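Service request form, structural biology core

Requester: graduate student, group of Dr. S.
Request type: structure prediction, single chain
Budget code: on file
Notes: please return the result as structure tokens.

Sequence provided:
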Amino acid sequence: MENIRNFCIIAHIDHGKSTLADRLLEFTGTLNERQMEAQVLDNMDLEKEKGITIKSHAIQMNYKLDGKQYILNLIDTPGHVDFSYEVSRSIAACEGALLIVDASQGIEAQTISNLYLALEHDLEIIPVLNKIDLPHAMPEEVTDEIVELIGCKREDVIHASAKEGKGIEEILKAVVHRVRAPKGDPNAPLQAMIFDSVFNSFRGIEIYFRVFNGTMKKGQKVKFISTNKEYNADEIGVLKLDQQPRTEMGAGNVGYLISGIKVASEVHVGDTITSAANPGESLRGFEQVKPMVFAGIYPVETSEFEELRASMEKLQLNDASLVWELETSAALGFGFRCGFLGMLHMEIIQERLEREFNMTVITTVPSVQFKAFLTDGSEISINAPSEMPDPTKLKSIEEPYIKAQIISKSEYIGAIITLCIEKRGIIKNQNYLTTDRVEMSFEMPLSEIVFDFFDKLKSISRGYASLDYHLIGFRESDMVKLDVMLNGEKVDALSAIVHRGKSQEWGRKLCEKLKELIPRHMFEVAIQAAIGQKIVARETISAIRKNVIAKCYGGDISRKRKLLEKQKKGKKRMRQIGTVEVPQEAFMAVLKLD
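Core staff response, request fulfilled:
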């Protein structure tokens, strides 16, 4: 066991984690040249296209140092704030972490937040300064930042370039010397923690686990503590690029288990696996995920509802931060109310449903969770605009607030503060990390940053600002429900909960946007935005009409009027019985309001 090292790689997005993982695999000879490709651990098409890591990936390497064979279990993690739950799960399975910082960009918000996660779990931090080969790298300044942040010595920071392959050997040596070997008793009752799972259509659910105590043997009966169900360990093994079966897995090791489980709800990430014959205690898992953004996902064809449900269950195995429950909508039929960690997470889930499961879905307007206090003293949670109680019974509404940490160059301070104040934010403090880099803290409503805050922040700071946020609680606000009506009928999928001060502007912009997106019909369509009974904005889409007076040349005006009146009556009847077709883009229009 003293020859095992479990470590993960943490960093801000785009600081070179996956490229560094490639070099480590190459250097240790885990992959041959034929298997090698760029970002080899990012095995989803979506990850390669977007250039981001979405899932954390575990892989085992063998490394020889001073005549001893070491087993290194590496977990590559995502860097985007929306996937921080993946990072927290990987950290729970490790004893050490490589903290990677880009020499040209310095420390960013997510670097700090992931570092705190690692320190909470008492991990050994190995700081690595990556991309030192870039022409605009600033190794000295950034090393100072790292020393100040972690409190290590200057010589502890390893200088590397994953692209050029520099410093790779130093990193591996540091992992062996600095990261402690896993503790655990191989003879104690079995305790293994599930840190990930994935659905395989041929073999059922594959479970990835880390053994803390005891030994897992092939064919033994194992028990999952939270569901209290027992299974046979049909196949266990270690994770190289492909799975390699073993007969037993001792304490401290990371591996996979296949036991032919077919039902997705029986596997919980964070659960403890123990032996059925000699059960052990449950391990302390990681805290439950708190969704930040809620949106409805509906099948385009109502007949595909059951298929969508099965797809969601399989997807939840692979992404434990996805939370969902059933919901019905008057406009869209049966669907799901889903909780996501952020807008990027929502976009990725939608893409994965379409690619991996061939499901075409409609996503409704995202919202956050509000708390409503009623006049009778009760309190309810509101996840969707349709759950908003009657205004006469409402005493007050509280909305979630977050603490946002923004790190940027000092020249963009003015623009960033202006943006945050527009979004109802309050600046709390400002701290200069170096002469040129500033860390700012804001308290702001979560509902304001859900939509396009991150995009705007990136564009006003030319991509330099980085953002990290966490929930700090609920505060009372003046929120109202804004309904959208087409020809007098409410479309519940388009309604939103907004602050009263912004409701009129929001309603006007939404009506203008819908006018562009909803196609013209044979009858006139009125688009209205209303708060309760009060209409705050209106746009009209004029009807497509045939020129009925084209055949009248000369003659009396009354003949033309008669034809026009006849047409008018027809249009009126058509409007009463006709339905307005709303395209999918219209439901997403709300996201793109400037």
